[in-house]
Hints:
By secondary structure, this protein is mainly alpha-helical. The protein has a domain at 23-92 and 105-202: MetI-like fold. Helix content is 72%, strand content 3%. It has helices spanning 2-12, 15-49, 54-67, 72-95, 117-146, 149-157, 162-192, 204-212, 228-257; strands spanning 215-217, 221-224. A two-stranded antiparallel ribbon has the order 1-2. Helix 2 (15-49) runs parallel beside helix 5 (117-146) and helix 6 runs antiparallel to helix 7. The protein is flat, with a radius of gyration of 24 Å. It starts with a helix and ends in a 10-residue tail after the last helix.
Amino acid sequence: MTETFEFWVSxxxxxxxxxxxxxxxxxxxxxxxxxxxxxxxxxxxxxLRNSSLPPLKLxxxxxxxxxxxVPDVLFFIFFPLAFEQLVELxxxxxxxxAGGGAGVxxxxxxxxxxxxxxxxxxxxxxxxxxxxxxxxxxxxxxxLNSVPRxxxxxxxxxxxxNWQVLSRVHIRxxxxxxLPGLSNCWLLLIKATSLLSLLQITDIVRGANLLGAPxxxxxxxxxxxxxxxxxxxxLLLFYILVTYLSEKAFAAITRWASRGMPMAExx
Length: 267
């Protein structure tokens, strides 16, 4: 019994497992930053779509309709790579000699931009924000249109300016209609964090697959067989816990946003 306990303690606290435990923080950080960027892009996209200016309205419509149909993995590959090469192109204009390095990228070693985990994590968060910002924009745009027009006209009749009507009535009531859809967008974003390994970030799903695979040692022989089911079960419980906490948080936010609004009971 003692030997079994010592084995599990030493096994679960080795360097590979400690790195895997640390990767959970990257998942949480990417989800929180990605959610913040998604809300930012969503508000901007909804504002463009509801704009009275045709060019802005067209731009918002294109962003919302096109990005929602593109697979997440393409943005995870395209955007960080395109941004990295754009930065290297700018550096190369001043750091590389004219005509040097034809046919290679970057044109010279001085233009090579080495990204660390922090930079890749930020790019991953922006990629999540771009993709799920389109979904968020669609939710917010629909919520804005769901606010009864009679209440907006009544506010104007009381002498409120357009800005007061927008900030105190329109946006104030919009959140009640938008929060259920935003909750779905948030949960979809959390699931998409499993793509972090595409950007060379230590990912909890990839780490679970590596740790759970049959492990051999030349001196000790077989350390363990295929234990991936156990690691995937741990990830399942982790995502269930995150989902549970997210639902509780959105329920609390919904109650806060619904204060003093009897119409919210019918949403």
